[in-house]
Amino acid sequence: MATSLMAFKSSIGRRALEPPAPVPIAHKPSRSCLNLRRTRSSRITCDYSCFEVRDVTYRPPGTQISLLSAVNFSLPEKSFGLIFGRSGSGKTTLLQLLAGLSKPTSGSIYIQRYGNDGNPNQSPEFLPPERVGIVFQFPERYFVADNVLEEVTFGWPRQRGDLQFKEHLALRLQRAINWVGLNGISLDKDPHTLSGGYKRRLALAIQLVQTPDLLILDEPLAGLDWKARADVVKLLKFLKKELTVLVVSHDLKELATLVDRSWRMEMGGVLREEPLPI
Ligand SMILES: Nc1ncnc2c1ncn2[C@@H]1O[C@H](COP(=O)(O)OP(=O)(O)OP(=O)(O)O)[C@@H](O)[C@H]1O
């Protein structure tokens, strides 16, 4: 792939391109979101929020083909959701809508805050694309920089900011590097010379510096050896404590211990909540 195209593909995973879809006017409380909170903690002690997808359909512009058919689901904050299903069923298409890379043809994607009683306690909010980080399948194919530091900070503002702003960026960088366990690696290292597992850590760090609320990963274990796969699973277990994670994967057994909620995507873009078939 030409370098310029690689840079473009990489950059679309790093920043928002399109304005968010309108927030629904009439909103029904999501009981399923509350139920999941109850199973994760016997006593609900504070407000919480859920990422919610309501009646989302998608038809690529200029076509008559519906790739997603009235998709509905909720994912509470700091939980781990997994979508599985046959190749070509529409999983990646759904992730792209959540990341704001395409707009739903109809339906809405938003964040809803709930009170202790399980009822919404404020109006639904847009899910702005800058609050979503997406790691594509084989993210290392889209690395563009000559060293780790430039790869992580690609797309950051280059103009002279004040000291406070620079300190803020430096803290974000340090936190992301620590979270993914890249602190033992020189920031001067060429990203292409890293091992498979470290390349995935770097791809995660690129998203985490943006401090997303929702982290989306498309086949995070694909193409890795057994040790790197185990490392990535361990890392996702840690990240789940810090933010909400939504994964598309065929590697159900390896991810099973992390999963709070799972859905099968059926051909034609029909999503159904279903336990993992393992
Ligand atoms: N812009 C488009 N126009 C027409 N069809 C499309 C477009 N984008 C994707 N498709 C088709 O939509 C279907 C769903 O694709 P998608 O990549 O979302 O599936 P998937 O479930 O993620 O598959 P995989 O597991 O192989 O990644 C496929 O048949 C694909 O060819």
CATH superfamily: P-loop containing nucleotide triphosphate hydrolases
General form: globular
Helix content: 25-40%
Radius of gyration: 19 Å
Rounded to the nearest angstrom, the distance between the terminal CA atoms is 37 Å
Give the total of domains.
1
Strand order of the largest sheet: 6-7-8-3-9-10
For the record, what CATH class applies? Alpha Beta
State which percent range the strand residues make up: 15-25%
CATH topology: Rossmann fold
Ligands and ions found: adenosine-5'-triphosphate
H/E element sequence:
HHEEEHEEEHHHEHEHEE
Question: Could you characterize the architecture of this molecule?
Answer:
Keywords: ATP-binding, Nucleotide-binding, Transport. Residues 51-278 form the ABC transporter domain. It comes from Carpinus fangiana. InterPro entries: AAA+_ATPase, ABC_transporter-like_ATP-bd, ABC_transpr_CbiO/EcfA_su, ECF_ABC_transporter_ATP-bd, P-loop_NTPase. With 278 residues, the protein is an alpha/beta fold. The chain has one domain (3-273): Rossmann fold (3-Layer(aba) Sandwich). The protein is built from 8 helices and 10 strands. The protein has helices spanning 3-12, 31-40, 91-98, 148-153, 163-180, 196-208, 226-242, 252-255, and strands spanning 48-58, 68-76, 80-85, 106-114, 125-126, 132-135, 214-218, 244-248, 261-266, 270-273. It has a 6-stranded mixed β-sheet, with helices on both faces. A hairpin with a 3-residue loop joins strand 9 and strand 10 (270-273). The longest helix is centred in the middle third of the chain and has 18 residues, at 163-180. Mean pLDDT is 85; it is low at 1-13, 15-27 and 41-45. The protein binds adenosine-5'-triphosphate. Residues 60, 63, 65, 67, 87-93, 265 line the site of adenosine-5'-triphosphate.
